[in-house]
Amino acid sequence: MEQTYQVAQASPAPPCTIVIFGASGDLARRKLVPALYNLRSCGGGMAPHDYAILGFARRPIAPDAFRAQMRDAVIKFSRLDLDDACWADFAARLDYLGGLDQPEAFDRLRVKLEDLEAAFHLPPNRIYYLSIPPEAVNETVARLDRAGLIAKPEAPHFTRVVVEKPIGHDLESARLTNRAILQHFAESQVFRIDHYLGKETVQNLLVLRFANTIFERMWGARNVDHVQITVAESEGVGSRAMYYEPAGALRDMVQNHMLQLLALLAMEPPVSLEAEAVGEAKLNLLRALRPIGPGDAATRVVRGRYSRGKVGGVEVPGYLNEKDIPSNSRTETFVALKAFVDNWRWAGVPFYLRTGKRMHARESLIHIQFKEVPRILFNRAGFLPANALTLRIQPDEGFSFGVLAKHPGPGVTISPVQMNLRYQSEFEGPVPDAYERLLLDVMAGDHTLFVTDSFVEQAWAFVQSILDQWATNPDLPLYEYPAGAMGPPAADHLIEADGRRWLIL
Ligand code: BG6
Questions:
Q1: DSSP letters along 178-224, please?
Q2: Residue 155 C-alpha to ligand 1 middle, in angstroms?
Q3: What are phi and psi of 124, to 5 degrees?
Q4: Who is most buried in 38, 330, 413, 421, counting CB within 10 A?
Q5: Which tens digit of pLDDT belongs to each residue from 408-426?
Q6: Nearest CA to ligand 1 atom 8
Q7: Lowest mean pLDDT among 9-23, 171-185, 448-462
């Protein structure tokens, strides 16, 4: 049996009721309900046996119709096959309530919760998962409070609220939302979610950096030439125009997921693994980001929008021809930018970030390119490639370290070789979905993988200057790229102007 070293145990999750606000939306179908299904005993065996799940949304749908929709969603999106007996057991604890947009529905919610708790002998531990548009959050938490649905943090049973990204639409609205939430909940009751933090490979970043001696010693300007972070998606906007059109790639991906990756990758070692210490280290890293000051968006940021093209051999429409996208849209579906972390460790090292929809393939990775070896001994001619560490976040989770080795035979011929770790072949069992891990942590009350209000605001502050420049300078181009490409050529120029190249995916 493989040797393991348990450093921290998962905390137990007490019985509770989870209310999904916005249960008829995309997130509930694609992620939340499948994750909850996987967590229950037939699947992962990790969730409390005593739970109830209540879908709460605007539309009046019969609970049975909701269950049927969720069954389809589990069949389509769960990593586990649907088992009829498990589903029957799960569905018996799944209910639905309509009227989310009506203030009086919150009184019905209270009655419904009491009924569910009585029916399943559950204590009034409640989790409100807000999968609703950012502009609806403030009013929703106020209504919960007015309906007497928020217990004090010191009460014997917990009330917790989970807030999905994006929090706010810009820096100002994010501040207002954070403030509004904290008028009704204590910080200990709030779980701001960024599902990238629940990904195994993202958590492994900390283990890689701080459970090994070799990497941390190489981590910084002395050894690193530059870093690339790519989050490429092959999907288009799909049916999410209502959400995506006013957001765009900068708000949807950079303000949260990309900056989380950057923070975990580049932060100083935290003083402990406690949520507060890790949060502080990440926040300090964001504070050290060099602002994209007035005029810098033109040279340090590239935005793009996909046009018609082929992804995986299939012809797909351009963004402007997607359902519900207005023909005068200026929304970007791709962003590339050059960031600098102005601290001692990273002084002068560029971090190139890029993310987009309808790119060549779904692939997320972090690539750390080390400096070239001195031009002596084997590298007199200066043609040896430098070492590189590539962390594959998804889909083929793992990492590879590129080194040089002597090719067997006479003379000295040197070949690049990869030291490769693949999660799938190295570790047994499936890799759980990020939402499974994060939902369990909310139930257990563990904040480590959640985002603080200060991080959210600091991240907005970084992207806000880009948004402002895009809004005030109509000359800043929105480049087209054909679906299936890795963004517009301008994104290549951004890095090539520095004598570097994007890693080819
Ligand atoms: C979400 C974004 O937060 O992350 C989506 O809103 C994006 O637009 C998704 O597709 C990507 O998540 P993942 O886990 O598939 O990389």
A1: HHHHHHHS-GGGEEE--GGGGSHHHHHHHHHHHS-HHHHHH-STTTE
A2: 35
A3: -80, 50
A4: 38
A5: 999 999 999 999 999 888 8
A6: 252
A7: 9-23
Q: Please, which pLDDT band fits residue 311 given cuts at 50, 70 and 90?
A: very high
Which residue puts its alpha carbon closest to atom 4 of ligand 1? 253
Of all protein residues, the one whose alpha carbon is nearest to atom 14 of ligand 1 is 196
What are the residues whose beta carbons fall under 8 Å from the beta carbon of 173, sequence distance 6 or more? 134, 135
Instruction: Using the atom order of ligand 1, give the atom closest to the CA of residue 364.
Output: 16
pTM of the model: 0.95
10 Å Cβ neighbour count for 416? 13
- The overall average pLDDT reported for the chain is 94
204 Cα: distance to centroid of ligand 1 (angstroms): 19
Note the pLDDT of residue 219: 97
Choose the residue to mutate in 193, 233, 355 for probing ligand 1, maximizing ligand atoms within 8 Å of C-beta: 233
Give the pLDDT confidence score for residue 41 in this predicted structure: 62
Which residues have C-beta atoms less than 6 Å from ligand 1?
233, 252
| Predicted confidence (pLDDT) at residue 380 exceeds the cutoff of 80 | yes
Catalytically annotated residues: 257
The side-by-side arrangement of strands in the sheet containing 159-163 is 94-97, 51-56, 16-21, 126-130, 159-163, 190-192
Task: Give me the pLDDT at residue 426, please.
Answer: 86
pLDDT tens for each residue of 314-326 = 999 999 999 999 9
Domains defined for the chain, CATH in brackets: 16-194 (3.40.50.720), 197-370+449-496 (3.30.360.10)
Dist. CA 77 → ligand 1 center (Å): 14
Residue 5 binned pLDDT confidence (cut-offs 50, 70, 90): confident
How many Å lie between the centroid of ligand 1 and the Cα of residue 233?
8
CB 25 within 8 A of CB 422: no
Pick the closest to residue 442 from 104, 148, 164 (CA basis).
164
Q: Whose CA is closest to atom 10 on ligand 1?
A: 233
User: Which of 77, 253, 362, 364 to mutate for ligand 1's pocket (most ligand atoms within 8 Å of CB)?
Assistant: 253
If one residue of 194, 195, 435 were mutated to test the ligand 1 pocket, choosing by the most ligand atoms within 8 A of its CB, it would be 195
Q: Is the pLDDT of residue 43 over 60?
A: no
